[in-house]
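Continuing the batch. This is chain 6 of the set; chains 1 through 5 are on the previous pages. Same settings as before, nothing changed between runs. Recording input and output for traceability.
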Amino acid sequence: MKTFLPALLLLFLTYNSACSQDKSSNSPNLKFTVEEAYPKLSFTRPVDFQHAGDNSNRVFVVEQRGVISVLQNEAGASTKSDFLAIESKVDDSGNEEGLLGLAFHPNYKSNGFFYVNYTANNPERTVISRFSVSSSNPNQADAASELVLLEYNQPYGNHNGGQISFGPDGHLYIAVGDGGNGGDPKGNGQNRSTLLGSILRIDVNQKNGATNYSIPADNPFAKNTEGFREEIYAYGLRNPWRFSFNSANGQLWVGDVGQNKYEEIDIIKKGGNYGWNTMEGFHCFNSPDCDRNGLELPVWEYDRSQGDISITGGFVYHGATLKELKGLYIYADYVSGRIWSLDTTDPQKPINTELLNADFPISSFGVDQNQELYICGFDDKIYKLSYE
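Output for chain 6:
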């Protein structure tokens, strides 16, 4: 995610790679728009949208300043309340810092546990913590219940990743950027002795001595003797800004923000090396040639020639409302506001279709308990994708 810039004049994206195809948004079967999901409400820099998996028809909006708001998922909702307010703990002094992620435990309905990802200072670091819901109020967390699971230092103020989510295996996955600055100056993306530049996977249901989590036995570097961090599930990422699991098959999709030229979408494999900073998208980075052996290439990339500058990863759609998007990956560009669908039915010839151009910066996507898709806008609103 990058500081918002005014959107440039947008032309149809013609660049493609790996024999892929682009379609314009003028198809008579693909006429979409966005509408405010909660017209009576606003949220300060919303960066995540979640539901608790408890069939309560509530949604939770993460505000970057350090507040999680809760409300009933109804278009006419006129009130929201603070589920958790930890502004005093959160450092949101930079554009990419703050409270960045929320995940509810798969057994939240019975144990009341949820997890957050935020940046803190003195020293600059990321904190992964568990909180508990209040025993007396389901719409309020116990702010004093924080249990810190994991902390790691951040050398710069950007590329913090921030997404956390439970996978189909019940483990907690964590998106970690390369630590920031330009070009990965510390080489973190290819360094498995650091947590930076990775997707992590931890078991939050088991402690390991004084550590409030354990390493899943099938993590790719579990019990290695080379000094690699055992939490790493995949590496070689620059700034994985939003990931999600395909609820139909468990695939892990990541939008990884590029450096100078290319934004990319990856499907993550256990132990995979996604190339940064050897490569940016399908291309060698800072070199006319590079060693691509052992690297996992993206399923899609786009360049920056049309004002698209920072990818916002989305979801493979499995709701009931937008039938034409069923099974397609929906994602956007934070700066330009363009929203696309990606069809990878034929992985050798993915089809990328522009759905619409929103007039606000898109920070994140989320789904409700019915798998319907929502959009977090940095105009302080939550939107739904809908037909015109």
